[in-house]
Amino acid sequence: MKKSARMQVLVNLAQREEDKVSELVANERKKVDLDKQKLQDLKSYAEQYDQERNLLGMSSHLAVNYQHFVDRLQQAIHQQEGQVSRSEQQYNMAMRRWQAARAKTKGMDWLKDKSIGEEERVEEKLEQARNDEFATRKFFDNNR
After folding, report:
1. In 10 A of CB 101, how many CB atoms?
2. Where are the domains of the chain?
3. Is the separation of the CB atoms in 125 and 55 below 8 Å?
4. Are 38 and 98 in contact, with CB atoms under 8 Å apart?
5. DSSP state of 143
6. CATH top-level class of 3-142
7. Is residue 73 a contact partner of residue 47, using CB atoms and an 8 Å limit?
8. CB distance 35 to 87 below 8 Å
9. pLDDT by residue for the chain (144 residues), tens digit each?
């Protein structure tokens, strides 16, 4: 088996790994987007409640309960912000893994192309040697 054919096997393996990591990156990106959307929904919900509180005249008892609810909503927002941060870190790690996998695939592909070039040069030299030998034989056969 030629070196380039063996290298192609390695390129294929590297490409499969790159594809697998690429899928992971896409999933992590979706998770970040989903977590950001949840955060935005919580912030919109909190803002809506804050505006309604200002519009409604409440008794002190309802105002206290309302404030407790808003405080819990703010805690949920804070927790979701932490989740967004963790999701972004996971995405960044997956992206770095993909970049490494991509670099490996490109490197393997470059080595395979280099092997093909070397094989072609060797084949050209062999072909030239055969042609030279044929021409030499023909020359000596004609001169006999």
Report:
1. 21
2. 3-142
3. no
4. no
5. T
6. mainly alpha
7. no
8. yes
9. 888 888 899 899 999 999 999 999 999 999 999 999 999 999 999 888 777 766 666 667 677 788 888 899 999 999 999 999 999 999 999 999 999 999 999 999 999 999 999 999 999 999 999 998 888 888 888 877
